[in-house]
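HUMAN: Forgive my ignorance: could you write out one protein's sequence and backbone structure tokens?

ASSISTANT:
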Amino acid sequence: MIRVKICGINDAASRDAALAAGADWLGFVFFPPSPRAVTPTLAATLAAGVPSRVGLFVAPTDDDVAAVLAAVRLDVLQLYDSVERCAALRARFGVPVWRAVGLRAAADLPGTDSGLDGLVIEASPPASATRPGGNAAALDHSLLAGWRPPLPWLLAGGLTPANVAAAIRATGALAVDVSSGVETAPGKKHPDLIRAFVAAARGACWRPGALPLDPAKGREAL
């Protein structure tokens, strides 16, 4: 079954819609420039009853991550940072880490696991972007041709209810991540779009090509 992450949850309506639709992970953004950003206090309130919680950080300090973890349990840290920094934060906090990778060329695809737990593969942000993800930038799926993933991975980047099934078929992804593609305006998710996205992803036919992720552990099911 295709697994789905709904990222950028920032209100009760989107949280409830994602849970009701059967999303596997809910993502909370801890990056103030994002229109989807939440405070640790708000995240703690929204995360109540959420079984699998992902916290998204962009080049965070140890103190940034510690402040969030003091307020809310996270099952996965999704990090926009170097491999070395991701590994250091994993060692420091003992929480599984998914590294987000923006692609410009096939050479950007990771070839080793670097001691991490997963990858989020998306398009490199536009030159004018103020944040590394959530820009609705579509990934060129041909860049993934022949790639042998060293880790479980999620496909992201410009996914919507209308194109997610085709993207799954084109890439063999077994997990997908969406944020702006289920919004009516930046940071404003719509329950109908969330439901439609999860249904489209789950209904997609896929070909082998990725390792499944265990929502409880952030890594492959063993």
About this structure: The helical segments are 12-21, 40-46, 62-71, 83-93, 164-171, 191-202. The first helix runs from residue 12 to 21. The chain has one domain: 3-209. The chain has a mean pLDDT of 90.
